[in-house]
Amino acid sequence: MSALPTRDDYRYFCPITTRWSDNDLYGHVNNVVYYSYFDSAANRYLIEEGGLDIQAGDIVGFVVNSGCEYHAPIAYPERIEAGVRVEKLGNSSVRYGIAIFREGREEAVAHGHFVHVFVERAANRSVPIPPRLREALAAIVVPSPA
Questions:
Q1: CATH class of 10-140
Q2: Angle, CA 88 vertex, CA 30 and CA 132 arms, to 5°
Q3: pLDDT digits (tens, 9 = 90+) for 51-93
Q4: How many helices (H) and strands (E) are present in the chain, helices listed first?
Q5: Which residues of 34-47 are buried (b: 16+ CB within 10 A; e: fewer)?
Q6: What is the domain partition of the chain in residue ranges?
Q7: Under DSSP, is residue 31 helix (H, G, I), strand (E, B) or coil?
Q8: Hey, which residues does 80 pair with through a beta bridge?
Q9: Is the pTM of this model over 0.85?
Q10: Cβ-count burial of 92 within 10 angstroms (0-12 exposed, 13-18 middle, 19+ buried)?
Q11: Strand runs (DSSP E) across the chain, as ranges?
């Protein structure tokens, strides 16, 4: 088994508070909820750092692929953080690496990936990533290991 991702592997952190509705019958955050954390963290970064206008902008990001590995359970009420990095920056798409951390802890409780394709809202067709978004995404690229 490989080592768990740590905070040092990520460039941007988004605080998240678990919600009562996140828990499942087993008393921990349900696996599908992690994808909403991934979505929220990636989009928050795009809005805050890249100027993405999710309400009225001409360009939007569509999720086309995602995956997650789970290492330890979390539950409501907990404060957590999503660490975000860019693993691959293409012409019209980006692959994020995202991990979930307990507040103040170094090792991830879960980690995975999330792929956005940027699309012109009106035409519903992929387009090159706009310059401001590309610059923001390039700022959190983590070089691949040699």
A1: alpha beta
A2: 100
A3: 999 999 999 999 999 999 999 999 999 999 999 999 999 999 9
A4: 2, 6
A5: bbebbbebbbbbbe
A6: 10-140
A7: coil
A8: 16, 102
A9: yes
A10: middle
A11: 12-17, 59-70, 79-89, 93-102, 110-120, 125-126
